[in-house]
TrEMBL record:
Domain DNA primase/helicase Gp4 N-terminal Bacteriophage T7-like: 37-72
Transferase recorded as keyword: yes
Keywords associated with the record: DNA replication, DNA-directed RNA polymerase, Nucleotidyltransferase, Primosome, Transcription, Transferase
One Gene Ontology CC term in the entry: DNA-directed RNA polymerase complex
Pfam families on file: Toprim_3, Zn_Ribbon_Prim
Protein name in the entry: DNA primase/helicase Gp4 N-terminal Bacteriophage T7-like domain-containing protein
Region (Disordered) residue spans: 120-142
Length: 333
């Protein structure tokens, strides 16, 4: 079979299967081929918070460091090979043989064989996905069931906890277990499902296996002005800067902003919603701002961006702005 004919046959057969192909050929994980996962570590360069898989149809991906491309491009990068070798590897996985056909009937039989093989793999993939989703839901439910007991055994957070002192924040709604601050996380319906634990150094740890998509921590009661932001400290800073007269949703990460923004809109249909962005000027494409813009567009909200507070700043969020404005002493707007 001529090279260009073989290549076109492989391209055609690969369509819609790039999630399975990249896992089998390159060893990518479920998250790395999940279009719903954004701003995750790149499987090629390893950089944090910069990669997303776009589609199983053509294998399109994007990394703020590596650039973008299709499935063959990613195979070439991961396997350090040229395009013909990438086609061969994908073709072997798909079961496509490079051989001439002696007759039209033989070619039709090969097409039928490939169609059957692709359908079998599609069904196997769907079965695995359903099983994995069921295991994941079960684990999330198990974790959620432990959260009330953990909070019941915890103490009110110490105002002198090193993280709170450094951020100049009171322990708004926080609990403490040993040296860890505990942030209660909720989903739509304000159901308690998870915790974020904050170390004295500021490292964030969620409960292993707990739900992360669409979770939030909420400050304040019903209000005309509602903010959506990334983290607990940013949310607490916004809440204090507006004299605790607003409602704030902390989405616990930029990848969660859009989902939490939709929840905030549903829970506050008559309010003015504002997405308070992290100004990630130190990163290519400013992901804090770009994710905030996506979230704002999804719900018809405004975007508020903090100004850079230091000439050498590694980006600025509203926690930095609050501190630069005087913190607990003078930080209210």
């Amino acid at each position: 079979m001529k090279a260009h004919i073989y290549t076109e046959r492989v391209k055609l057969a690969a369509g819609g299967q790039w999630d399975s192909i990249l896992q089998a050929v390159c060893g990518l994980t479920d998250n790395e081929v999940n279009p719903r996962k954004r701003n995750i570590p790149c499987p090629h360069c390893g950089g944090r918070d910069r990669y997303e898989f776009k589609s199983a149809d053509n294998g399109n991906y994007f990394c703020r460091h590596c650039g973008s491309g299709d499935g063959f491009s990613l195979v070439m990068k991961m396997q350090e090979c040229r395009f013909p070798e990438a086609v061969e590897q994908v073709g072997r996985y798909l079961g496509i043989e490079r051989k001439p056909y002696q007759s039209e009937a033989e070619e039709l039989a090969e097409q039928a064989r490939l169609a059957g093989l692709m359908e079998t793999r599609k069904q196997e993939r769907q079965k695995r996905q359903k099983q994995e989703a069921a295991r994941k839901r079960n684990r999330q439910q198990q974790v959620a069931a432990t959260v009330p007991g953990i909070l019941a055994d915890a103490q009110p957070a110490d105002p002198n906890h090193p993280y709170l002192v450094r951020k100049q924040l009171p322990p708004l709604g926080l609990y403490q277990q040993g040296r860890l601050l505990l942030v209660a996380l909720y989903i739509d319906g304000h159901k308690l499902v998870n915790l974020e634990r904050i170390t004295p150094e500021g490292r964030k740890l969620s409960l292993a296996g707990g739900l992360r998509d669409g979770v939030y921590h909420r400050f304040g009661g019903e209000s005309w002005t509602v903010y959506i932001c990334e983290g607990w400290a940013t949310g607490a800073s916004l809440y204090l800067m507006d004299n605790q007269a607003v409602r704030v949703y902390a989405a616990m990460g930029k990848g969660n902003l859009e989902a939490v923004a939709r929840i905030a809109r549903e829970q506050n249909p008559d309010s003015r919603l504002i997405v308070a962005a992290d100004n990630d000027t130190h990163q290519p494409d400013n992901p804090g701002l770009s994710e905030a813009l996506k979230a704002a567009e999804a719900i018809g909200a405004a975007v508020l961006l903090p100004t850079q507070v230091q000439a050498t700043s590694n980006g600025t969020d509203f926690s930095d702005f609050y501190l630069a404005s005087g913190g607990l002493k003078d930080g209210s707007m």
